[in-house]
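Page 47, continued from p. 46.
Same chain as before, 615 aa.
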Amino acid sequence: MTNARSPAPFYFSGVAFFIPFALSILFAGQAAGFLDEGEFVAQARSLGISHPPGQPLPGLLFALASLIPAGSIAFRVAILSGIANALSAIVLFRASEHAAEHAGLDARPPRFTLSLAVALFATVGPAAFIQAIRPEVYALAGLFVALVVERTLAFIRRGDERSLLGAALGLGLLGSTHPYLAVLLALPIGIFALRTLGRSRVTTARVLGAGLLGLLPLAYLPLRAISRPALNFGDPSNLANFFWVISAKAFQKSLGPGLEETTDSRFVDVLMAVFESVSPVAFIVAIAGALLLLRERPTRPISAFLLFVTLLTMVGRGALGFTKNNPDALGYLLPAIFGVALLLGAFIALLLAGIPDELGFAPKLRMAFAILTLLGPIALGASAAREFGRRGAAESLVFDEFTRLSLPAHAVVFAYNPQTIFSMLGYEAEERSRPDLLLVPVPLLFYPGLVEALLREEPALRDSLRSYLLTGQFGRLELMALAIERPVFVELDPRVDPSLFDVMVPAGLLHRVLGEGSSAEDFARGERDQLASIFQLRTRLGPREGIEPRAREQLLLKYYNFALYYGATGARESARIMARDGLVFAPRSPELLGLLDEARNEERGPIDITPYRLP
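Result:
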């Protein structure tokens, strides 16, 4: 057999990089999609500070990517995600080499081919693929996760300080990108490094120094906040705010209600998400193989480490809660995806190493099995490309057309839905077509410094914001007074007090506050306009089966909130239409079913919507 430590030819790493990168180029969209994507486009444009934990390292890299002279800013940032995912494939190729060597697979061509298959398994499946085509932080986080895992496996194999320093540096960089994943990986690394660290204070100091070096981008947050950038969530210009931001304390609160069906099976949902990202067969074989690898002394440490990382990641995401069809939730699972892929590769390597050399066809048999493993990632990549394309970006553009672009000059928008907030930030940063608009992100008003920043931009907000901070609701008189000075629009949400409904009228997908109060004619005109707008939006999105899940959720929330509004104002026929159309997307929603029954009632006048308002 060939020396196991012979390096792989460069073209294996080239293929590992090229395939996931080519997929990202083909499927990255020109516009930001749903969730936080718009916010990161705004961060790239303004070198700003995004929502906690601030994402300083991604923000700096996003700004650098925005200088690429090709496509929109959203596309450029998405390409950075693609590059990060492709680099992860190279790192995981090396990690698989470590695992295969531990398993005793010395034959070079089969080992290299198997390592390539493992790298692609981890980076072209659904969980990694969807991060590689989005302007988001998870592909970058995945790169640092891969680096940490690879360096830790190298340390387990060699026991050298250099590998441990690399793992510590990667852990620090991950902390500057996604602190939760850094904390999660620190536990298994610490267990395996504890003996080495206990032997030498010098080594311990160097490892801590490497980790702190990786955390150095966190210093960007207070330095940038001092200059008051356009995007400055949490204002980490002082020590208290800095720790508030990096601890992600804001996300201990819910930013908004939803109509998704609740379930206690979130751990099952996590398991199914991992299944889909590596295939059920690969997952079962990997976990069963890990148990066998634990029985072999040479492979026991690597299998224990990878199994620990995999299970800890899955349990952690389940404990946090898991939302189906949420690509962000899939991003949290990348350590588990990488762990499963590497365990699968190590197990197959053990099987191939067990083929007796006495068999004359042993080399060909090893190579044939290694090549067969490449079929798995090919099928995964094709499935992910079909399922995840960039429909979400195109659909988010449709929502933006019916909100931000349709508003009158100098409008103030009180937005409750985080998706609306981040979308408006992103599209405005991309186009800079509506600098006259003032966005008031209602669920984020408790962020340090945000109220002060809004008042610097528009002092007339003072009374409205004071009322909200004191009572948790905007006052009628304060909103009406503001509406005399500027057009005021409110995005409906169950948290909007129904007592405000009689001073606002429907206006497209929003509701407008009228400074002089609303009349029956104002209401009727707005009602016709809103029903037409929601019908046009629904038509633009196409058949129900083809609508991206996040777009379906946003459309469902519109139907639900409009049904509440029309029910409370006595427009029972419009309430019936909204509830009926919403049930197409959530047929078992008790709130919509109750509203529909009430709207069908022969009685006239307003409906008591209290039982149907989400908390």
